[in-house]
C-alpha cells in the first residue's frame, strides 16, 4: 500500500507512528503542500478534497482523512478497544482532535514555525492561542485520571492527539503549564517502536 503525505504534517505523522508501532509495511510518497502538490489534477483525482494524507490500498481503493486511515489500519490490534464504550471514547477524542485541537494548535504551528508569523496573519495566529490552551487544559484534566486518554493503555486516540501536541511549542504553546501532558508525551516516546517525526 502507499501513503501520500508531507513529512512536516502532523496528520501524516499519525500514520508514520501507527505503522511503526504495528510494523505495517508501506510505500511513502512525498507530497509538498507548500508547493501546491495537493492541488494538482493528479492528486485531486485521488482526493477531491485536496488534503493529505491519503492511503491507497493494493487493490486501488483510496481512503482519506487521517483518523479514518488510522482506525482502518489499527482495526483488530490492541490500539482499538474491544469494548464498545471505550471504542466510542476513542472516537470522541479523535473528533475533539479535529474540531477543538488541530484547528488551533496545528494552524498556530504552521503560521509561526513555517511562515514566521507574517504581519497579515498575526491576528489569526494570536486568535489561535486561547483555543489551543483550552484544548491542552482538557487533555491535562483527562491525563490526571489515566496514563493515556482512554485508559491505562495507548489507543489510536493518543496517536491522533500526540501528533500535534508534542510539537505544540512550535506554535507558541508553553507545555510547562501542563505537566500531565508532558508526562504523557514522554510515556509515548518511551514505547517500543516509537518513531519520531521527520524520520520517514
UniProtKB/TrEMBL annotation:
The keyword Transferase applies. SUPFAM superfamilies: GST C-terminal domain-like, Thioredoxin-like. Signal peptide: none annotated. This is Glutathione S-transferase family protein. Belongs to the GST superfamily. Keywords: Transferase. Residues 83-200 form the GST C-terminal domain. Residues 1-81 form the GST N-terminal domain. CDD domains: GST_N_4 (cd03056). One of its GO terms (molecular function) is transferase activity.
Amino acid at each position: 500500500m502507499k501513503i501520500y503525505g508531507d513529512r512536516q504534517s502532523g496528520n501524516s505523522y499519525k500514520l508514520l507512528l501507527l505503522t511503526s508501532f504495528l510494523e505495517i509495511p508501506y510505500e511513502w510518497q512525498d507530497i509538498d503542500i507548500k508547493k501546491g502538490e495537493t492541488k494538482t489534477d493528479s492528486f485531486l483525482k485521488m482526493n477531491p478534497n485536496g488534503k493529505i494524507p491519503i492511503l491507497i490500498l493494493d487493490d486501488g481503493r483510496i481512503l482519506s482523512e487521517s483518523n479514518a486511515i488510522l482506525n482502518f489500519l489499527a482495526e483488530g490490534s490492541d490500539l482499538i478497544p474491544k469494548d464498545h464504550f471505550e471504542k466510542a471514547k476513542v472516537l470522541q477524542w479523535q473528533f475533539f482532535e479535529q474540531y477543538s485541537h488541530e484547528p488551533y494548535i496545528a494552524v498556530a504551528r504552521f503560521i509561526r514555525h513555517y511562515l514566521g508569523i507574517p504581519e497579515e496573519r498575526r491576528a489569526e495566529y494570536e486568535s489561535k492561542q486561547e483555543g489551543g490552551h483550552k484544548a491542552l487544559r482538557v487533555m491535562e484534566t483527562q491525563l490526571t485520571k489515566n496514563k493515556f486518554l482512554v485508559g491505562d493503555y495507548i489507543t489510536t486516540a493518543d496517536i491522533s492527539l500526540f501528533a500535534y501536541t508534542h510539537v505544540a511549542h512550535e506554535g507558541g504553546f508553553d507545555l510547562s503549564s501542563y505537566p500531565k501532558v508532558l508526562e504523557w508525551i514522554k510515556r509515548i516516546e518511551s514505547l517500543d517502536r516509537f518513531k519520531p517525526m521527520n524520520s520517514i
